[in-house]
Design a protein that fits this description.
The chain has seven helices and seven strands. The protein has 247 residues and is of the alpha/beta class. It is globular. This is 3alpha(Or 20beta)-hydroxysteroid dehydrogenase. InterPro entries: NAD(P)-bd_dom_sf (IPR036291), Sc_DH/Rdtase_CS (IPR020904), SDR_fam (IPR002347).
Amino acid sequence: MGRLDGKVAVITGGAGGMGKMHGKYFVREGAKVVIADLESSDGKQVAEDLGENAIFLPIDVTDEESWKSVIKDTEEAFGPISVLVNNAGIVKQNSIEDTSLEEYRQTIHINQDGVFLGMKHVLPSMKKAEKGSIINISSIAGIVGGTSNLAYTASKFAVRGMTKAAAAEFAEFGIRVNSVHPGVIRTPMTEQEGIKEMVQEMEKDIPLKRIAEPEEITNLVLYLASDESSYSTATEFIADGGMIQVM
């Protein structure tokens, strides 16, 4: 038996990085998985590689109609949704002075509004399933502040707070909501020019002396998606190699 047998999961940002790894592990553990992403070519390939228990559905996490379409198509393909991983997000490295209002709003729109819309629109489907687990991917930037990433920090603090509010509201339906706060992870996002150099400097201050591989975060997300975490809700789960604990 798999740890996610009988579960239907939607993973946003599932075409690459951590999202891709989440999908791989979820299917391996018995879930039926929707890879939801703006990147159609990569998303289709990921779903194809995962086999018959995975499909790709295009999504713009900032668009309400897009969410409605994904929920509807997921139910038609696999049935009511029991797991949502709000994984899609962006980061732009800039000082406050050099951050335009447009850049700030874009980050908030994707990282914060996308999580709100996901939780809102998955709720009716999870009510049909009579249980559910929502995993919101935040960051250690949702726990502590840092330089040159105000918009990202604002969005990730918001995700942390929204997680707690939703957990309180959804508990009566048997739906759990938790946030995951990764530290520095080896993903395409952290390999971006301008961010890669910063990551290399941060690595020196991590007690475990290395950045994490995507599967190390996936194992935590998998735990929260499974019934093994049945009494965990409204909680921050930090995986950062001890970084913020010794700052």
